[in-house]
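chain below, 312 aa
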Amino acid sequence: MNLVIIGNGFDLHFGLKTGIKDFQNVLAKLDSDSVFESSLQWWSGYEEDLGNMDFEDLETNEIIPPDYMSDHESDRDSGIAAMDERMSQLMNTRQEALAQMANQANVQLEKKSNRYAFDSDCAIVSFNYTSTLEVLFQYDSHINGILHIHGFAEDDDPSALLFGYSEPNRDILRKFSRIGLATGDEALDSQSRREYDEARKHGDEDVPDYYITQQEERILAFYKKNQKKLELKSLDKYLSDKVGQIDEIIVVGHSLGIVDRPYFNFIDNKLNQPMWTIFSFHKQLGDSDIAQLPFKNRVRWFTEMDLVIHQM
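prediction:
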């Protein structure tokens, strides 16, 4: 038995509009002022770049200073409620854009007449939200046991589609930590508290404004929600009854980028270090990419997906 891992290059191979530009085109129609803009071309780099979000424009345009001259508390805390709403809107828009992109691609699939097959029976882990396997390959997700590890648009739950960076940017966390917010990085938060206390002793630091800090806290929470939640437990459960049966791992259209690399390391260890065959959509992995793979000495690369995908 083979384990087939499906990435976005698989959908691109069939002409589906599931690239970064396609996602951003959908996103722009939903929210023209989105913080998710990027010039990067491939999903792995784009997702990782979310960890470097620039909040300067958002803070300039969205943070509402409190009115201390007013007799009404709502003139001071209204900015907190507004920021709550804006951050929820941004996150919901992100998820809705992913769902719409996948659903539009699924409409494309229904218009295709060709049907395809892999060489043999296999287990499949798909990183895509689309129904390419179900439509073009006529797989039943439940009967054939496909694991849509990052969610499935057909389930009609945009919030369940996983997406995001791997590790937060410590410079961004440091910015929030310096105004007294708990970032989850204990060493960083502790250092910031010491630096703040020392500055206050010398009169070099103002007390952060409560209402502004509360709005910044909402921005920090939004930033942290953009970190990808890894589904390693789901992957472990899926693979548990296949250990000893899988001889080779076939990767079709996935770049094995840093964001999803924990999955591949887990698979390699779980399946006792089998051979890996990679069919890349746009390029072979470079030397620097190869060097970071723990199974680098057990990999074969091809750039022609038709070698593994056969028309029926």
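The chain has a mean pLDDT of 86. The CA atoms of residues 191 and 230 lie 29 Å apart.
thats it, cya
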